[in-house]
Amino acid sequence: MTGVPAQPIQPPAVPAHFQTFLAFDFGLKRTGVATGNRMLRSATPQRTIQAEGDARFVHVAERIKEWQPDALVIGVPYHPDGASHENTQRALKFGRQLRGRFGLQVFEVDERYSTTEAIASGAKDADAASACIILEQFLRNLP
After folding, report:
1. What HEC string does 29-54 produce?
2. Number of Cβ atoms within 10 Å of the Cβ of 78
3. DSSP-derived secondary structure for the chain
4. Which of 26-54 are b and which e, b meaning 16 or more Cβ less than 10 Å from the residue's Cβ?
5. Where is the YqgF/RNase H-like domain (predicted)?
6. What is the rounded CA–CA span in Å between residue 133 and residue 1?
7. Listed residue (115, 96, 102) closest to 25, CA to CA
8. What is the pLDDT tens value at each position of the chain, 143 positions in all?
9. Domain locations in the chain?
10. According to CATH, what is the number of the domain 20-140?
11. Is the separation of the CB atoms in 105 and 8 below 8 Å?
């Protein structure tokens, strides 16, 4: 599916009782993490997960246990023209795995330029900062 224009991610229908969220900026070697809540509409960076494959999910489980989120948010990367690429598919698969393993609803956010924005802002941990940007974008779009 590489190079095929993707359907835009529709604004999520998020139940009003979902108040706390844990967001992930998926990467093959590092996964940025952020927490946030609906009331403040802000996110806080957390320690980036530096693990691959199944080892990543051990760390994800620890974060879910620690933060007890109502739902999860993942960034899904696209080319500037909206076309999907390999990392688009990897992020979507990560979202399906999260849903299956943890039984939480997973919301997807178009994360084009989030890492670039994080680096431009001078973030010490671009992955965690990118997860914050993804989560704050998600929270801003909630009613």
Report:
1. CCEEEEEEECCCCEEEEEEEECCCHH
2. 19
3. -TTPBPPPPPPP---TT--EEEEEE--SS-EEEEEEETTTTEEEEEEEE---HHHHHHHHHHHHHHH--SEEEEEE---TTSB--HHHHHHHHHHHHHHHHH---EEEEE-TTHHHHHHHTT-SSHHHHHHHHHHHHHHHT--
4. bbeebbbbbbbbbeeeebebbebbeeeee
5. 19-118
6. 27
7. 115
8. 445 555 555 555 899 999 999 999 999 999 999 999 999 999 999 999 999 989 999 999 999 999 999 999 999 999 888 889 899 999 999 999 999 999 999 999 999 888 888 889 999 999 999 999 999 999 999 98
9. 20-140
10. 3.30.420.140
11. no
Place of tokens 């952020």: 34
Identity at 58, one-letter amino acid code: V
CA atoms within 13 A of residue 37's CA, in its CB half-sphere = 7
Residue-level length of the chain: 143
